[in-house]
Design brief:
The chain has 6 helices and 15 strands. By secondary structure, it is α+β, with helices and mostly antiparallel strands. The strands form 4 sheets. Strands 5, 6, 8, 13, 14 and 15 form a 6-stranded antiparallel β-sheet that branches. Strands 2-1-4-3 form a 4-stranded antiparallel β-sheet. Strand 10 (244-247) and strand 11 (250-253) form a beta hairpin. The radius of gyration is 24 Å and the shape is globular.
């Protein structure tokens, strides 16, 4: 009887240790060599379908260590090192490298002081994400343009992410969100966030302006604007003057030099890609608009 009790106590102690250990660790996904090869294969397929003249595709693991690399015919020799740098930057900072190129282009030149070994702020690097975890990065250099570099990188990263997600059970359906007209009207009266970005890659703002504002640059968020009421003079592009980073990946300036000016009024829709300076230069009375922020 005593021996049985002793065994039971030991078993309970071992179970307790296991539970505590599990509470202090998390399950982590890792990129395998097969996964890295799949990323490259998808990028190469995309390059051939879109007649890319060349390109070097590099894949790194979560720590920025090179796992696989392929150089397409006709690509300049330096493309290998550049693509590795892009992939490493994307994974170590967990952001597409275009975000940093845009930040520097819009005035924060101090970022170029970061060590070259860890920072290549050129468009064409994206993180590889599986079920919300960054498991690696892919970088491309040497295609027809920086935009095509990024397209090839995204094709590779998306191929792996999509494949991994499909291997799991069908996810539970998400709740439909509804806001009645009373809630929406109250939100517009003060200008507020109608739906935040918690566990989403988008937000909904019921935005209100009664006067002009600062120049803005969102390094990560694309703004989709739908005008509900009022008129405003809106400037996009150009260069934000006196830029200051007020929050991570959020820059504000006093105004915009250059750029394209438009008159916005009820019913208009304008899409401002991430990294693009924009500014409500003039506002005539109450100006109400939905802003859908997509990251």
């Amino acid at each position: 009887m005593k021996a049985t009790l002793r065994i039971a106590i030991i078993s309970l102690l071992m179970l307790s240790v296991t539970v505590i250990a599990n509470a202090q660790t998390t399950e982590k996904k890792a990129l395998t060599i097969e996964g890295a090869k799949k990323v490259i294969a998808a990028a190469v397929t995309y390059a051939k379908k879109n007649n890319a003249p060349g390109g070097v595709i590099a894949v790194v693991d979560e720590g920025g260590n090179l796992m696989a690399l392929e150089r397409l015919d006709g690509t300049f020799a330096a493309g290998a090192n550049i693509s590795i740098g892009k992939a490493r930057t994307a994974v170590l900072f967990k952001r597409p490298t275009k975000a940093f190129e845009d930040i520097i282009k819009n005035g924060r030149t101090a970022m170029v002081a970061l060590p070259d070994a860890y920072f290549t702020p050129l468009q064409g690097g994206v993180p590889i994400t599986v079920d919300g975890q960054v498991v690696g990065g892919v970088g491309v250099s040497g295609a027809s343009s920086a935009q095509q570099d990024e397209e090839l990188a995204l094709a590779g990263a998306n191929a792996l992410s999509g494949d991994m997600k499909l291997s799991h059970a069908t996810p539970a359906s998400k709740s439909v969100l509804f806001f009645d007209n009373t809630q929406v009207t109250a939100s517009f009266s003060k200008g507020a966030v109608l739906l935040d970005g918690t566990n989403r890659n988008y937000m909904v703002h019921t935005s209100r302006r009664d006067q002009s504002g600062q120049a803005e640059v969102h390094a990560l968020d694309t703004d989709i604007i739908y005008v509900m009421e009022g008129t405003a003079t809106f400037v996009t592009g150009g260069t934000a003057t006196e830029p200051k980073e007020i929050a991570p990946y959020e820059i504000r300036g006093s105004r915009i030099e250059g750029g394209e000016t438009r008159q916005l009024s009820k019913g208009d829709v304008i899409i401002v890609p991430n990294g693009t300076p924009h500014w409500f230069k003039e506002v005539n009375g109450a100006f109400l608009y939905y802003t859908i922020k997509v990251r």
